Description:
By secondary structure, the protein is α+β, with helices and mostly antiparallel strands. The chain is about 50% helix and about 15% strand. It folds into 3 domains: about 1-85, 2-Layer Sandwich (Beta-Lactamase), CATH 3.30.450; about 105-220, Reverse transcriptase/Diguanylate cyclase domain (Alpha-Beta Plaits); about 225-310, Orthogonal Bundle (Arc Repressor Mutant, subunit A). The protein has 14 helices and 10 strands. Helix 11 crosses helix 12.
Amino acid sequence: MEDFMDFCEGIGKTLNCKIGVYDLKGNLICGEDVGYLNTDDMLIKDGLTYIKCDKVIVSVSSLLSQDAVNLLKLIIYNVYEKEAANLMQPIEYILKHDVPYESLKGRYEGYKALYIKCNEDIEDVLLNVYSGYNVEFVKDENGIYLIKKFEDDENEANSIINGIWDEKGINVIIGSGKTVKGEYTIKHSAENAKISAYLAERLGFKNGYFIYEKMVIYDLINGLRRDFLEKLFSSIDNDFLNILRDRELINTAEEFLRCDLNISEAARRLYIHRNTLLYRIEKIKLMTGLDIKAFEEAMVFKLLITVYRLKFS
């Protein structure tokens, strides 16, 4: 990939022009975004030259002679055959095999990966939703990757969640990676999307949309050594573990945290009187020593719950 990008830069300097290489769907693989037009051989339009070389379109911001086109094709087919083959690896191969991140730089710029975690067959729903759109799906044993450019990924993800529920009556968790840019490749985005969905499930969520930027702290916790965390929990009073086993108390605490420590809103969502909520919060304080009405102590409580669920449940 690096050699191929150097090749694009070298040709551009030699011809004093810009050059971009696209796949047959118009996705920029490497070089500069000159513009894309599909052609079966060669096309000159609006001062640009478009050349088809096997499974790529090379766009050049200059008018090239037929001799120059033939030479360019020869170089791509013969000198850079291996690199071109790597560039054309399908997304399924990229996600399921040990493809180096370095070789993917410059591909799928502006795209993002979602991972829809579900063990049921939902592929038909997705194909219906995205019929006619430029989107790629990759299925694995626990769900489906969805690769595309998004204008509003959160709204689109929630539409998928609602659509699958309406069609199948199935709850799904969707994780999201970041948008591909620079050193951050489509493989990074897909891995982060799957990790986000996995962590959300471990934390007890049944459905929802979870972006990696908001899940990264949980990913760090999940990577901590278990023996270190066992020492941490060995020093914690058993009353804290009893709270984790008390569905009423733990549900109360988590809803209170989700409501940003707003007592009135949490009581409304739990369908209980605010005095009942305050009683339960005081009970948690007596059992753990943590007053979760205070931000810092609430964060400690949240951290301990997270560590326990990710590493010990």
